[in-house]
């Protein structure tokens, strides 16, 4: 699949990370990283398990605080704003969890309604119904509206999880391992959906993955996290045009074995 061309404003970073470090007890996960996410861009963060990829997006969303450095999101310094301002900022950030994070006791409709009712107190029933129908249509699952999460396949749960995030029209999307645990055909469908979301909703996204097919098909840029720092940043071909023994096995495992 060839990635659709995106309209990216490289003069407008929506996330700007400078000198960020994070350690847990004596283990330094991030060691002074710098990174920008630009308006309209899909940025893939690659790395082995335990390298700090998920920690990075928790820092961006204010779920964790850095030990050092600054994180500016949509013009606001995450570590300096009040809890109320942080909650308002998070509404502008969509977080697609690895496990989809659907409420098992709610139908698909109720799962999608929940963030709207919680965050937009004055919204009408007509507006809720319209938003639910539109977002379900955008992920191709209108027929599941009255189903329970347990009745959905893994790929359908991923799509509904993304739909629930999109219903608030976020400016930034954070995808945590979006293709983990899915079969190859469903992975391709999720990759296509990520690109569709970028085009249709004009989002800027960070995609955390160790799936190189996902990286190649969705990423406008790739950032390779190694030893707590971004060692290689560029297009997919630029990142993997190397004899670096920390990088080559990653490529070989995904595309040769």
The succession of helices and strands, N to C, reads: EEEHEEHEHHHEHEHEEHH
- Give the helix/strand class: alpha/beta
Radius of gyration: 18 Å
The number of helical elements comes to 9
Can you give a write-up of this model?
The chain has 257 residues and is of the alpha/beta class. The chain folds into 2 domains: 1-92 and 171-257, P-loop containing nucleotide triphosphate hydrolases (Rossmann fold, 3-Layer(aba) Sandwich), CATH 3.40.50; 102-169, no CATH class. Helix content is 37%, strand content 27%. It has helices at residues 53-60, 83-91, 108-119, 125-138, 154-166, 184-201, 212-218, 236-240, 248-255, and strands at residues 9-24, 27-39, 42-46, 68-73, 76-77, 93-96, 172-176, 204-209, 221-226, 229-234. The protein has a 6-stranded mixed β-sheet, sandwiched between helices. Strand 4 and strand 5 (76-77) form a beta hairpin. Helix 3 (108-119) runs parallel beside helix 5 (154-166) and helix 5 runs parallel beside helix 6. The longest helix has 18 residues, at 184-201. The model has no long low-confidence stretch (mean pLDDT 91).
Sum up the structure in keywords.
9 helices; 257 residues; six-stranded mixed beta sheet; four-stranded antiparallel beta sheet; 2 domains; single chain
What is the gist of this entry?
The chain is an alpha/beta fold. It has helices at 53-60, 83-91, 108-119, 125-138, 154-166, 184-201, 212-218, 236-240, 248-255, and strands at 9-24, 27-39, 42-46, 68-73, 76-77, 93-96, 172-176, 204-209, 221-226, 229-234. A hairpin with a 2-residue loop joins strand 9 (221-226) and strand 10 (229-234).
